[in-house]
Amino acid sequence: MKKLFGLLTMLALGAQAQTTNLWIGPTNVAAIGSWTNAANCSPDVPDTSSEIASFVADFTVNATVTLDGTQTVNGVIHN
Questions:
Q1: Are the CB atoms for 55 and 24 separated by under 8 Å?
Q2: Taking a C-beta distance cutoff of 8 angstroms, is the pair 25, 59 a contact?
């Protein structure tokens, strides 16, 4: 019974809601912008352990996002 309770507890903790924040900033210049600029992300800047940063835009050049400060995210998706 203890094992079942432990498993259910882990499943409940692992099922916390996550937000995926999409990069909507520039995609056609090498220095595409700052991570902390809210205008570059939707719905907001990914900066918590329950958020995922998604860079799946149609980039037309090799691009660099400036990470200005320490950020914690749950994951990063890129193409």
A1: no
A2: no
Q: What is the dihedral of CA 12, 23, 58, 20, to 10 degrees?
A: 10
What's the pTM?
A: 0.67
Q: Give 10-46 pLDDT, tens digit per residue.
A: 334 445 578 898 888 777 777 778 889 888 889 999 9
Beta strand 19-23 pairing with 41-42: antiparallel
| Element (DSSP H or E) covering residue 12 | helix 2-14
Residue tagged 């980039």 (tokens): 59
Secondary structure of 40-79 in HEC code, one letter for each residue: HEECCCCCCCCEEEEECCCCCCCCEEECCCCCCCCEEEEC
d(CA 47, CA 62): 24
Please say whether the beta carbons of 51 and 42 come within 8 A: no
